[in-house]
Structures are given as structure tokens and as C-alpha cells.
UniProtKB/TrEMBL annotation:
<protein>
    <submittedName>
        <fullName>CRISPR-associated Csy4 family protein</fullName>
    </submittedName>
</protein>
<dbReference type="InterPro" id="IPR042564">
    <property type="entry name" value="CRISPR-Cas6/Csy4_sf"/>
</dbReference>
<dbReference type="InterPro" id="IPR013396">
    <property type="entry name" value="CRISPR-assoc_prot_Csy4"/>
</dbReference>
<dbReference type="GO" id="GO:0004519">
    <property type="term" value="F:endonuclease activity"/>
</dbReference>
<dbReference type="GO" id="GO:0043571">
    <property type="term" value="P:maintenance of CRISPR repeat elements"/>
</dbReference>
<dbReference type="Pfam" id="PF09618">
    <property type="entry name" value="Cas_Csy4"/>
</dbReference>
Length: 188
């Protein structure tokens, strides 16, 4: 149950922008959640905005007090600690609404889709272009965190969508990015 939270605010400097630091912080959190096999820690972005589209500079962790205290006692902030201000483990304000915070994936590169099809089906570039028109490309308008895949080293955008506000919490588990399409986190 997500009864407590910790706010992690990135502090940019002339050499590191807030989005760059948030991506580094979120990448470190992902590794810590995987390493500890934690599916009870959710995340939210309290400064999330669609207009203008921005994820903000605060990463909020949600969970029970003991789990969050244990996570924060570890050295997972190594490498970003100088650029992060963390609150202590705090209780969620009474009466807070809840919502899901989930990942949305898009087909954002027609060229990548075509190359993949050529490899999978043994097609020529012309055949793949005919099968996948330029209009197949999605243009996402959601805020995102820029991350780097630990397995391939490739950069990618993790797009974040918010579910509708609810009065009641929905229990469940979170993935290794602290996101879920069914489990909710308090939204305040």
C-alpha cells in the first residue's frame, strides 16, 4: 500500500539540464528496483504537465514507510547525489486522490520499423516502404523521460501517461520503472 512518499528533486547546473539529470536519476532508480526485486514502489511526477508538455524536475516515490526507508538507505543515488535533493519518508496527505501512472509506447520511427521488417521478413527497402507508409508513424504528445537502455545502450524516450483521478486507491504491483496500468499512487 502506498501510504508514504519521498520527493527527489533534481537541481540543474550550467553543465547538466533538469531533463538530463531526471533521466539519470530515473535510470538509477530502475536499476535499484530491479536489483532489489521491488514491485511495491510506484512513481509519479508531481510537476507533470501537458501544456506545456513537461515531466518536471521532481520524481516522487510511493510505497510503505519501511520499503521506502530501506530503498533510500541504499547507495543507489551514486553518480547523481550532488544534483538531487531528497525529502525524508513522509506520510501521504489525508484524502489524496489516486491515479495510475503508466508507460505508453509509440511507433515513433518509420525507418526503424522498416529496417526491422526487412530483417524479419527478408524484404527489400522498397517492399518494406510499401508495407509501412510514412503515415504509420505516431507523434506522441505526452511528457517523457529520456533514458538509455542498459541492455542495448540505445537511448529511448519513456512516455508517461496519467490515468483519471479516483477517490479510492487500486492495489497492485508496479513494473521495474515504478509504473502500472492498474495500481494507483496518491496524486497531490
Amino acid at each position: 500500500m502506498t501510504t508514504h512518499y519521498v520527493d527527489l528533486t533534481v537541481v540543474p547546473d550550467p553543465e547538466n539540464s533538469a531533463p538530463h539529470l531526471l533521466g539519470a536519476l530515473y535510470g538509477q532508480l530502475h536499476l535499484a528496483l530491479v536489483r532489489n526485486r521491488l514491485d511495491s514502489v510506484g512513481v509519479s511526477f508531481p510537476r507533470y504537465s501537458l501544456d506545456p508538455r513537461a515531466i518536471g524536475s521532481v520524481l516522487r516515490l510511493h510505497g510503505d514507510a519501511a520499503t521506502l526507508a530501506g530503498l533510500m538507505a541504499e547507495d543507489w543515488l551514486k553518480g547523481v547525489r550532488d544534483h538531487v535533493r531528497a525529502t525524508g519518508v513522509l506520510p501521504v496527505p489525508e484524502g489524496s486522490p489516486h491515479r495510475t501512472v503508466q508507460r505508453r509506447q509509440f511507433k515513433t520511427s518509420v525507418e526503424r520499423l522498416r529496417r526491422r521488417r526487412m530483417q524479419r521478413k527478408g524484404e527489400t527497402a522498397e517492399q518494406a516502404a510499401e508495407a509501412i507508409p510514412a503515415t504509420a508513424e505516431d507523434r506522441p504528445d505526452l511528457p517523457y523521460v529520456h533514458l538509455r537502455s542498459r541492455s542495448t545502450g540505445q537511448p529511448f524516450c519513456l512516455f508517461v501517461a496519467l490515468g483519471p483521478l479516483r477517490k479510492e486507491a487500486a492495489p497492485g504491483t508496479f513494473n521495474s520503472y515504478g509504473l502500472s496500468g492498474t495500481a494507483t499512487v496518491p496524486w497531490f
